[in-house]
Amino acid sequence: MSARRRTRYGASPAHLLLVLCSLALAGYAGVRLLGGREPWLVAAWFVGAALVHDLVLLPLYTVTDRAAQALFGHRPGTRRLVGHVRVPVLLSGLLLLTYHPLILGRVEAYPATTGLSGDVYLGRWLLITATLFAASALVLVVRLWRARARGETPA
Amino acid sequence: MDGRRDGHGPARPGFWRSPLRGPWLTSALGGVLLLGVPVLLLTGLLSYAAYNPDLPGNDTTPDRGLLGFYLFPWPTDPHWLYRLTQGVHVTLGIALIPVLLAKLWSVVPRLFTWPPVRSPAHALERLSLLLLVGGVLFVFATGVLNVQLEYVFPGSFYPLHLYGSWVFAGAFAVHVATRAPAALRTLRGRSPDGGTAPGDGGPADAAGLATPRPAAPTVSRRGALATVGGGSLLLFGVTVGQSVGGPLRSTALLAPRGQDAGPGPNGFQVNKTAAAVGVGERDVGPDWRLVVRGGGRERVLSRAQLLALPQHRAALPIACVEGWSTTDQEWSGVRLADLAALVGLGARPPWVFVDSVQAAGAFRSAALRENQVRDPRSLLALRVNGADLSLDHGYPARVIVPANPGVHNTKWVGALAFGERG
Predict the structure, then answer these.
(1) Which of A78, B62, B71, B121 is a plausible cystine mate for A10, CB 3.0–4.6 Å?
(2) Is A120 at the interface with chain B, CB within 8 A?
(3) For residue A70, how far is the Cα from the chain centroid?
(4) Which of residues 98-117 of A touch B (CB under 8 A)?
(5) Lowest-confidence region among B16-25, B35-44, B88-97
(6) Domain count across chain A
(7) Contact at 8 Å (CB) between B23 and B190?
(8) Does residue A43 sit within a domain?
(9) A-contacting residues of B 218-237, CB under 8 Å?
(10) Domain encompassing residue A147
(11) What gap in Å lies between CA B326 and CA A114, rounded to an integer?
(12) Do A102 and B65 touch (CB under 8 A)?
């Protein structure tokens, strides 16, 4: 640590070289990335991408998760049950996040371009979500049954 | 340890309450990405090479400059090569989304690290991290939107995705070089649920990931990783069928090409219907002629004349850049090399420039390299699976070449120019 403090840079020369090379590559590619008709929009998408997780998705996860936890209370007995809601919601949410254009029917050109129906996706996603919740409920029932069979309180 | 003062709000380490965060979780997720991301980068580079961008009309990113240093002639063997590389690229990319998001979740306290800049090295690293996180989500977003035909991004897909990937790749190299050694040590040395106590004094504090004020746990780290793994498995499961095809296609419940394309000999996936690109019956009716040029000569042939030439067969798939593909279809038609012979270039057929009757659209023409023209399986197909091509599959004639990206298997062919641009 003291050797690092001595250099004003804050890390080894190899580190500086590596970062500068990567910035050079980023600059070379970045100029081409921004070489289209709407460079400001491209830059906005890039910066937005850097921030969307931490400033949009993360607050979303945190708020809904805290709400779910509040619903289940804070007693040790029920606190762990929140997982049985959290897991299906997370899995279903991942599918929705990834495939939202098809699921929400936002791709108007889809049927004309592919010759396939664009209406099936919402129904399929809902079916998968229902299955996930059913599976989660089944696992919960099995856990409770086994805990009762052992004479313990569910946890 | 180094006397930094805590900031306010999210910059206070105690703001973050999840007991899961810590070096082990981040290292485990990072380890998965360390394996997966190079595969994505490699298959992406191969996809660009598959387009033979040095040939006239093929380059979707003509200003690539030095970024094309590695390009090489795309082979025709094995005939399913592009099907494999691009299927892996898209399917693996989609399957890694949960891992990526979990990794970003696990390091969020570092976004708000205080003070924001400790030294020039730290500043450069944070800049590099901006390029890393911005780059990876930009590339994933453009890719996932493109495969669903949701063209809302600000420009053409190819330059955005390719150049964005290079920006990301440089930042990824820095990130791996600076973090991987410590991450691997962490994975080898610690158990998943050990070392979370604040004031541990060990790497937990220095990494700034573990919270000094953990809330009571509702799930173990293993449970959290199992959920992330479950997400990846689920996304993989609803996607992979569109690339594998056959009876598995119907398992791809949410993938854009997971639906049955109908019965019969022309019952396989269509990239773009004739209607979508403005090709109608009158463009391909009885007046349609194929013009073959090369070596200073020209031949004009009707469909009947093409059918009278020696017909050959090939079992070849269609594989799209969007990651989906079909199983091998039985094509029959005239060998490209035989068409070159019609204009006297049969001895050593050169490259060919193919033009479609399609009036507009990015891939209405494409160039094929000599090795592709000379391959005996490369056909101007007139029939498939024992029947005439349907209009959507390129009636009256389309190109089919082994290991070729789908858009270069030009449909509704109007002209072939051997050794010269059309």
Answers:
(1) B121
(2) yes
(3) 22
(4) 98-99, 101-103, 106-107, 109-110, 112-117
(5) B16-25
(6) 1
(7) yes
(8) no
(9) 218-219, 223, 227, 230-231, 234-235
(10) 73-155
(11) 14
(12) no
The C-alpha atoms of residue A53 and residue A47 are separated, in whole angstroms, by 11
Token pair of B359 as six digits: 């009036």
Q: For residue range B177-187, what is the model confidence (pLDDT) as tens digits? A: 999 999 999 99
Cβ neighbours of residue B422 under 8 Å, at least 6 residues apart? B293, B353, B354, B355, B365, B415
B273: Cβ–Cβ under 8 A, 6 or more apart, which residues?
A: A112, A113, A114, A115, B392
Nearest residue of A to residue B267 by CA position?
A: A115
Q: Give the chain A residue nearest B251 (alpha carbons).
A: A124
| pLDDT tens, residue by residue, A44-89 | 999 999 999 989 999 999 999 888 888 876 676 676 688 899 999 9
Structural domains in chain B, CATH included, are 9-242 (no CATH), 274-418 (3.90.420.10)
pTM of the model as a whole: 0.94
Q: Is B403 left (phi over 0), alpha (psi -120 to 50) or beta?
A: left
Mean residue pLDDT of chain A comes to 89
The answer for A 39-98 residues in CB contact with B (under 8 A) is 41-42, 44-47, 49-50, 52-54, 57-58, 61, 69, 74, 79-80, 82-83, 86-87, 90-91, 94-95, 97-98
Q: Give the pLDDT mean for B151-165.
A: 97
In whole angstroms, give the CA distance from residue B288 to residue B281.
10
Q: How far apart are CA A93 and CA B9, in angstroms?
A: 28
- Could B174 and A103 be called an inter-chain contact, meaning their C-beta atoms sit closer than 8 Å? no
Closest CA to B352 of B422, B418, B413: B418
- Give the ipTM of the model, two decimals please: 0.92
CA distance B318 to B334: 18
